[in-house]
């Protein structure tokens, strides 16, 4: 039973954290903020992991912190279910961030692993690089099934912005 609670809480943390991150942070950042676009989409072939580590720009660190907040929000509830599962979920989320930012040229071809990722709707570095190249596609930092609703939310927010925010030159 403890193992099931551990796995369940880790999975919930990843699902809920990615949902909150996608719909309440990432997509709105593309519409209402320029900072995310500059940091995350500023240069097409930059190593983002390397950039996050070597930069001395505190705004880049702030961006990283804001990216983890959606996952931290659910920690108090999931901790009650399984502290170990909650820690496991946070660890898996961080490892996924590092993995999905591996430059494609440095990644070895792992067809079986990629097929498993596709089977479980897990974002691969190749899929995430699509988002770096085109900020209008490939939403869902961990799970690919957030892409389509994420793009629909992006369009809704853009319509709202056009309607309520005066055009800025």
TrEMBL record:
UniProt entry keywords in alphabetical sequence: Membrane, Transmembrane, Transmembrane helix
Transmembrane stretches, start-end: 6-27, 79-99
Protein name: Sterol desaturase
């Amino acid at each position: 039973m403890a193992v099931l609670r551990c796995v369940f809480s880790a999975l919930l943390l990843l699902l809920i954290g990615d949902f909150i991150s996608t719909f309440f942070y990432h997509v709105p950042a593309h519409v209402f903020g320029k900072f995310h676009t500059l940091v995350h989409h500023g240069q097409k072939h930059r190593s983002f992991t390397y950039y996050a580590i070597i930069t001395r720009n505190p705004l880049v660190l702030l961006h990283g912190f804001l990216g983890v907040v959606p996952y931290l929000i659910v920690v108090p509830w999931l901790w009650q279910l399984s502290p170990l599962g909650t820690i496991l979920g946070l660890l898996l989320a961080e490892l996924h961030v590092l993995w999905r930012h591996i430059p494609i040229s440095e990644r070895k071809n792992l067809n079986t692993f990629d097929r498993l990722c596709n089977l479980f709707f897990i974002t691969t570095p190749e899929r995430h690089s699509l988002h770096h190249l085109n900020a209008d596609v490939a939403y869902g930092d961990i799970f690919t099934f957030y892409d389509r609703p994420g793009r629909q939310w992006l369009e809704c927010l853009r319509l709202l912005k056009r309607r309520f925010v005066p055009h800025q030159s």
